[in-house]
Structures are given as C-alpha cells and as structure tokens.
Amino acid sequence: MTIRGQKLTLIDFVIFACVVAAIGYVAYRVENVLIYKWDWSAIPSYLFRWDEATGSLIPNLLIKGLVTTIRITFWTMLVASIIDVVLGIARTSSRLFPRLVSWAYVEFIRNIPPVPFLFLFYFFIASQVMPLLGIDDAIRDMSPGTKVVAELLFGPANLISNFASGVVSLSMMAAAYIAEIVRAGVLAVPKGQLEAGHSIGLSHLQSMRYIVLPQAVARVVPPLAGQFITLIKDSSLVALISIQELSFLAMEIAISEQRFFEVWIVTGAMYFVVCYSCALVFGRLERRIGVHRR
Amino acid sequence: MTDSETMIVMSGVNKWYDDFHVLKDINLSVRQGERVVVCGPSGSGKSTLIRCINRLEEHQAGSITFKGIELDEDTKNIAEIRTEIGMVFQQFNLFPHLSVLDNCTLGPIKVRNASRADAEALAMEYLERVQIPDQADKYPSQLSGGQQQRAAIARSLCMKPEVMLFDEPTSSLDPEMIKEVLDVMVDLAESGMTMICVTHEMGFARTVADTMIFMDEGRIVEEGPPEGFFNAPKSERTKLFLSQILSH
Ligand SMILES: Nc1ncnc2c1ncn2[C@@H]1O[C@H](COP(=O)(O)OP(=O)(O)OP(=O)(O)O)[C@@H](O)[C@H]1O
Ligand SMILES: [Mg+2]
Questions:
Q1: CA of B41 to the centre of ligand 2 (A)
Q2: Ligand 1 site, residue B43, Cβ cutoff 6 A
Q3: Residue at A1 is within a domain
Q4: Considering Cα of B234, then B238, then B243, then B248, what sign does the dihedral take?
Q5: Which residues of chain B does A216 touch, with a Cβ-Cβ cutoff of 8 Å?
Q6: What is the pLDDT of residue A294?
Q7: Are strands B219-224 and B211-216 parallel, antiparallel or unpaired?
Q8: How many Å from the N-terminal Cα to the C-terminal Cα in chain A?
Q9: What CATH number did the domain enclosing A125 receive?
Q10: Cβ-based contacts of B80 with chain A (< 8 Å)
C-alpha cells in the first residue's frame, strides 16, 4: 500500500495498531471503570447563546474567553517587542551599566519558572502599580465613543485593569525569550557581512540596517513564529492570577457544570484550531522569506 | 613626507591581539599604480596587515596614512576613506539577500547618493568588465564560486576606489575557477589600478607584481621587485617558503 508516494511497511501498521489500541483502552476505562456519563448538551450554549433582548445568537463565555486569549497574545507580543527594543539598545550600549541590567533581566527571567514569577510579579508589583496608573479612573471618564474602541481593543471595560496586569506579566516573560531569539539571529549573520558593508563605505548604522538586519529577520521569523504560538498556549498561565481568558473560564464552567471532560476537550480543540492555523500561516510566510538564503 | 605619488604609508606599525604580537614594526609604502603582492606562511599576519589599511582592524602603535590622512581613532570620516579603498575577501562576502545587481548598487546609492538608474548603469558596466553581465539578476547563491568572486570585485569597483585590497581571493575556489578570477585581476592591474594582493598564486605575482613582500611571524622579512625576489631571495626563510610553494 502507498500513500502520497510513501510506501507503508509492517512497522507503520504495527504503530498504527498500537495507537488505536491505546485510544480504545482509554475509552474503555472511561466508559466501564470510571463509568463516565457523557453529556455534551450544556456545551454549545457556552459557545453561543440566544439573546432574548436582540433576538440573535451572541458569543458566550468560551468564545469570549478565546477572544480574550487572542487579545492578550496580541498585546503581549506588542508590549514585549517594545521591551525588546529597549533591551536591545541597552545590550549594545557602550556603557557597562545598561548592558549589565539587561543581561541580568534576561537571565533572571529565563532561569525561574513562569508560575513563581507570575505570582511574585502580580501580587507584589502589578497589584500595587496598576492602580497608580489610573486605568479604572480613565475608563470611567471616557466618552461612549472611545469606550467602544477601548472595549474592542482591550475587552470589557470593567476588566481592563485585570487584562493589563495579565498582558504586562506575560510581556515581561516573553520579552526575555524573544530577546534571546533576536540576539541569536543577529549573531548568526557572519562577521564578514558587516565587514563587507564597512569596506564599501557604509556607516555602521547603514551596514546594520541594509545588510545585517534583513538577514537576521529571515533567520528570526521561524523561531519567533514558534514563540508566538507558545505564547498563545502559555497565556493560559494567567488563569492563575484570575485573568478571565479561555482557560480560566473553562475551569469555572467545568466546575459549575461538573462536565470536566467535555469542557476541557472543547477548550483544547479551540486552542488547537487557533495555534495550528497560526502555524500554517507562518509556515507559508517562512517559505516566502527563505527563498534566497544561503 | 609624502610626495604626491605615495598613496599608503605604514611606519612602525605594531598590533597585538591581547598579548599576541601579530604585526611587528611594519614599514611599507605604496605608490599610486603600484602592484604589491604579499605572501607568507599561514598565521604570519598577511590578512591583518591589509585589514589595517582600511581599518577593519585597529593598530596599536605606529602610523598608517592614506593619501596623507592618518588612520587612527580620531579619524572621523573613516567610512569616506573606505569608499576609496576596495576590498575583496577570501569568502566573497556577497550580500546573500540581494541580487548581484543590488549588491553592486547598494554602495553607490547609499553612500554616494547616486540615482538608481545611474547606479545600475555603473554596475552593469563593471559586471561586463568582469564578464558576468548575464548574472546581474541572480542571487549570489545561484552563482559558481568564480562568478561570486568576480561579482564581489565588481561590487568594490562600483565605488571607484583608488586602491584595491585582495585577501587570498582565489583560495576558496575550485582550481578550474581560479583562472577566471586571476584574469580579471590581471586586467585590473593592466588598467593601472593600485593593488595590494595577498595570494599564493606565484604565476600571477610574476606577471603583475611591482613589489613582492614576504611575511613571517608578523614581520616583513623580504621586500623587493619580483626578479630578485624569485631568483635570488636574500633570506633563508624566503628561500624555504618559495621552494615549498613552487614545488607543486
Ligand atoms: N581576532 C583575532 N583574535 C586573536 N588572534 C587572531 C585574530 N585574528 C587573527 N589572529 C591570529 O593572528 C595571527 C595572524 O593572523 P592572520 O589572519 O593575519 O594570518 P594570515 O597570514 O592571513 O594567515 P592565513 O594564511 O591563514 O590567512 C594568527 O596566528 C591568528 O591566529
Ligand atoms: Mg589570511
């Protein structure tokens, strides 16, 4: 037998049989040992519900949670990029102190797990600093028009402060990882490229801009795309600090409805669809950029 | 100190990598139109020597002047001086993300503020001179080694430099491609270009060199016109080196 020109061997069949057997075993345990009663009836109404007031279907908690997750990821990527520009400038500074601080920051974040960081950062910094920023007051004083835009960008007004804490916490962590990816990308451009730029009379800035950075970008896109997808998944961490994104809401629904398998299977599927779509888009992008690499 | 003909003067140049003394009391003067060939064993400091001339490397003692301008940390317009000093690298160092044509036009457009049309006309002129005008729209990775090196020479020439530095331009080429690059270099030499070439191609050296230089352990051991250099070298080390390199 052949599929897409690949010959299937006995080994393939054995592996396939093993996978089927494993799935069958889990299903058997759930049905007969755990004696789990499947009930999917409550799930669809958590995706969309009928709104009596407007007489139409509107998104309910799970979809809202997914939208929050995507919003968090988007803003985290943006804020992390800004932190990274600052980090990058500090790292290439000729003065020792900025270099030391940025180095310490990256190493600190990369060498402690996200959960302790999240709790420490959230309770000791975000919860103390956020009120000072006056976000809640600003929202209260907004004109209705601005409020609509703000809700579109940041989600429900009453949760914006909470949303911001999540974004800032995640950005602090993502920035450290992205900084390393970008650094590796720049370092991977051979030294001779910069020298060739200098030798035709380009200034250092011009050499970086026209020669090193374009090549670094081509190298950095694939790992950055991976980091973005990791970020979508890792954003579920902020459920720990009660940010109302997909995982947090799923947890609440699972508990209140007592339908653990159903809720988490649907939630997992929602993450999968989003992440895999991103992977496909990035894959296409990569093939575009990667055409002329050595 | 310098008459109008003298282009490059190195006097008492010393350089260290940490505590490794890589260039020792280098004195060298290159006239306009002079062709200098530098040879010597691996690690003797040949690359370092010519890289000091466009300040890709910094020297720590002595002085280097280009057309009377001293090259040191106070040199503000080092980028401007580099436009007048072309350099060809052993590894070509073409820009892989740009077509051959764009490799050649980048300098004229960004440094000399040439219009794209002018820069492309100039680039095509030099690509014809190195005999690869038909490769202009390809990317470096699509070219053979010999073609890449000729493209790199064209890229340097587009800045209309007054002197060309070559650092073992044929060492990473397959034998059958060496000649096409050497032919371009001979052509350049015959057009009166000032050249400093690090190479072990002794046939080329005999054809074009006005001055031969032999380096060993960071010093210029022997310097002189090719007839004397090849037929009656003064130093034992030069003799030994030449016998090794000419024996195959
Ligand atoms: N960046 C560097 N740091 C430390 N040592 C270096 C550096 N670059 C070169 N060297 C050392 O300086 C010496 C001279 O190097 P150079 O490249 O000038 O030699 P070369 O004569 O060009 O040799 P080759 O024929 O191998 O190219 C070598 O021993 C080399 O190991
Ligand atoms: Mg060398």
A1: 9
A2: yes
A3: no
A4: negative
A5: none
A6: 43
A7: antiparallel
A8: 38
A9: 1.10.3720.10
A10: 201
What is the tally of structural domains in chain A?
1
Give the minimum alpha-carbon distance from A13 to chain B in angstroms, rounded to a whole number: 42
Q: Does residue A50 sit within a domain?
A: no
Q: B22 CB less than 6 Å from ligand 1?
A: yes
Domain-embedded: residue A150: yes
Q: Is B191 in the pocket of ligand 1 (CB under 6 A)?
A: no
Rounded CA-CA distance B161/B54 in Å is 12
Q: Please tell me the distance between residue B17's alpha carbon and the centre of ligand 2 in angstroms.
A: 15
For atom 13 of ligand 1, which residue has the closest CA? Answer: B43
Which residues have CB under 8 Å from B65's CB, separation 6+? Answer: B2, B8, B9, B71
For atom 12 of ligand 1, the residue with the nearest CA is B22
Higher pLDDT, B221 or A31: B221
Give B63-111 pLDDT, tens digit per residue: 999 999 999 887 778 889 999 999 999 999 999 999 999 999 999 999 9
Q: Which atom of ligand 1 is nearest to the CA of B218?
A: 14
Q: Give the model confidence (pLDDT) of B109-163 as tens digits.
A: 999 999 999 999 999 999 999 999 999 999 999 999 999 999 999 999 999 999 9
Quick check: A200 and B56 CB within 8 A? Answer: no
A157 lies in which domain range? 61-293
pLDDT at B1: 47
Evaluate whether residue A69 is within a structural domain.
yes
Q: What backbone phi and psi angles, to 5 degrees, belong to B195?
A: -140, 140
* ipTM over cut 0.90: yes
| Ligand 1, atom 5: closest residue by C-alpha | B17
Tell me the shortest Cα–Cα distance from B78 to chain A, in angstroms: 8
- Residues of chain A scoring pLDDT < 70: 1-3, 125-126, 289-294
